[in-house]
Write a structure and sequence with these properties.
The complex is a heterodimer of chains A (261) and B (317). By secondary structure, chain A is of the alpha/beta class. Chain A contains 7 helices and 15 strands. In chain B, helix 4 (70-85) crosses helix 5 (96-109) and helix 6 (214-223) packs parallel to helix 9 (301-315). Classes of the chains: A alpha/beta (261), B alpha/beta (317).
């Protein structure tokens, strides 16, 4: 079973994010592995571990794939230290500021060429928060999409994946046959910390870096353009009181003032 | 004649209020056609529900694939309707399902996509609030049919009663759209409270409730509000996961958000920061949630909420 995990390096959640020339400033900010992708890496590891592991030369592999600048290799290295076998970084000046359509095109090309059975993603990146790339990859590959999974079971001999998901309409059970794109929610597992052994082993693993030309695809111009971006005025400091027994009444007064009751 | 397609937003068999919001913003651009995707035999019933908002036409497509194959089947049919009707834009509700439909549709129709718009102008410039609501971005689609998802509760809906013309179309759904199969759906328990993303007021409880949501629910009911929960509360099993507000839960943008016993981790704030007003009740004066409160009470939610609930009830005739 060949598993691909798509990951993204993002600005640290706590960092102040700024727009520069219509794009998120990714240079002057601490960058980390998108924390929602850690659940995807962990789930991939749990799936291979339930199927005999991913020792070199064995039938199961986990490959992490990322599109981004050179330093995204730090995030790939972290995934390798969690136990992935290999990593692919697609890095190209032409991809700076790429939108979801371009990202999904690049990732799906790498995935198709690698003939993966199972593609696992997080549900969203904490910077763009669109939640569309997994669905777009499935559309481009023409395969099943099993997104927002809170439980995943893989039957490798039947080449079938079952998931449970919670949606607006309730709790759904779904399945699809290989290849399958799965996105996992953060409730699905508790990602492992890389062990010392894992960190040492990751140093010996190679990250394959490729560019757009080597994929044999062209990158069209942008599908959308930012007209302008501006900082919103910070929320005016609110009124904070300490309950002296009248807080309940003051809450009611606040609701009246806001015309909510 | 130019037209804008909106995807009528059904949660299960119920038309959501977001549909009228989509129609209201779409009507600024051109005449509005609402697309209704219904199970076989339910087309006229679903279409009849589309009775409020500036909607001129309704297109109904019936197929059981919408239930069985979900996102992919809906995107497949919408793409066929785009080819047929050449709309000037397609607007869809910005929730997990709507965004995925929009994503697949953008790939299929080779069109640009903008998600989580809170407003759209007549010339199709979309407004988004990004980075936890700290930044306003205006953007537009530069290629293909603009596909824009609109965040529920962002537009004040025009709720005029209408009698749109109804057109029924029959469509085959492509094989690639049938690859994921839903085998069972267990509907959420009906609590009689408004839906989280649609509610004008959301009252949420967190770790500080210690698992006892009675005070939170009573306060919510006195206001006709929806009940939400932090991830800490849903992970502890105190409240259903479907009610989780935050990064990986639901994003809400109500007139008032009430955070009770919630510390305000950045992941929670990401799901509620664009609320118009924020009321905080927390015992810990250092809780980061106070930073974004319009009104904050440092106090015990189990004494403050019941008093406030009483006060609200006393004001009612």
């Amino acid at each position: 079973m060949k598993i691909a995990v798509c990951i993204k390096q993002v600005p640290d959640s706590w960092a102040e994010k700024k727009m520069v020339d219509g794009l998120l400033d990714r240079v002057n900010v601490d960058a980390v592995l998108n924390d929602l992708d850690e659940y995807a890496i962990e789930e991939a590891m749990r799936i291979v571990e339930a199927h005999g592991g991913n020792d070199e030369g064995g039938p199961n592999t986990v490959t992490v794939i990322s599109m981004g600048p050179e330093r995204a290799s730090e995030s790939l290295r972290k995934a390798l230290s969690m136990g992935a076998n290999g990593a692919i970084l697609i890095s190209d000046a032409a991809l700076a500021g790429a939108d979801a359509l371009t990202t999904s095109k690049v990732l799906s090309t790498v995935i198709s060429q690698g003939q993966f059975d199972l593609i696992i993603c997080g549900t969203e990146s904490t910077d763009a928060r669109m939640s569309v790339v997994p669905a777009m990859i499935a559309e481009r590959i023409g395969c099943a999409q099993l997104t927002f999974a809170s439980a995943v079971t893989v039957d490798s001999s039947a080449k079938k994946v079952n998931i449970t998901r919670v949606t607006e309409t309730g709790v759904e059970e779904m399945f699809g046959e290989f290849p399958v794109v799965v996105s996992v929610v953060e409730k699905i597992n508790e990602p492992r910390y890389p062990s010392f052994k894992g960190i040492m082993a990751a140093k010996k693993k190679t990250i394959e870096t490729i560019n757009v030309a080597s994929l044999g695809i062209s990158i069209e111009s942008q599908w959308s353009v930012v007209v302008d971006a501006s900082l919103r005025p910070a929320r005016a400091a609110g009124v904070i009181i300490t309950d002296d027994g009248t807080a309940g009444d003051q809450v009611v007064a606040f609701l009246v003032e806001k015309k909510l009751i | 004649m130019s037209n804008v397609l909106i995807l009528a937003d059904f949660i299960g068999a119920k038309l959501s209020r977001t549909t009228a919001e989509l129609a209201t913003v779409a009507a600024r651009i051109a005449e509005v056609t609402a697309v209704v995707l219904a199970p076989v035999g339910k087309g006229s019933e679903y279409a009849a529900a589309v009775s409020h908002g500036p909607i001129t036409n309704v297109i109904v497509v019936e197929s059981d694939s919408f239930t069985t194959h979900g996102v992919a089947a809906s995107a497949d049919v919408l793409n066929q309707i785009i080819t047929l009707k050449a709309p000037s834009a397609v607007l869809i509700a910005s929730h997990a399902f709507g965004k995925e439909v929009a994503g697949r549709l953008a790939v299929k129709s080779n069109s640009g996509i903008i998600t989580d718009a809170v407003d759209i102008s007549a010339d199709l410039i979309a407004t988004q609030l990004v980075f936890g609501g700290s930044t306003t971005v205006h953007s537009k689609i530069s290629h293909g049919v603009p596909i824009i998802t609109v965040r529920p509760n962002s537009i004040t809906p025009d709720l005029q009663e209408v009698h749109p013309t109804i057109e029924t179309l029959t469509m085959d759904i492509g094989e690639n759209a049938k690859k994921s199969v839903v085998t069972s759906v267990q509907p959420p328990e009906e609590g009689g409270r408004p839906e989280l993303t649609e509610a004008d007021i959301v009252v949420s409880g967190g770790r500080g409730t210690n698992g006892d949501f009675t005070a939170v629910e009573a306060f919510a009911d006195s206001l006709g509000a929806a009940v939400g929960a932090s991830r800490a509360a849903t992970d502890a099993g105190w409240y259903p996961h479907t009610h989780q507000v935050g990064q990986t839960g639901k994003t809400v943008s109500p007139q008032l958000y009430v955070a009770c016993g919630i510390s305000g981790a950045i992941q929670h704030r990401a799901g509620m920061q664009t609320s118009k007003a924020i009321l905080v009740i927390n015992k810990d004066p250092e809780a980061p949630i106070f930073e974004i409160a319009d009104f904050g009470v440092v106090g015990d939610l189990f004494t403050v909420l019941p008093k406030a609930t009483e006060g609200i009830k006393a004001r009612k005739p």
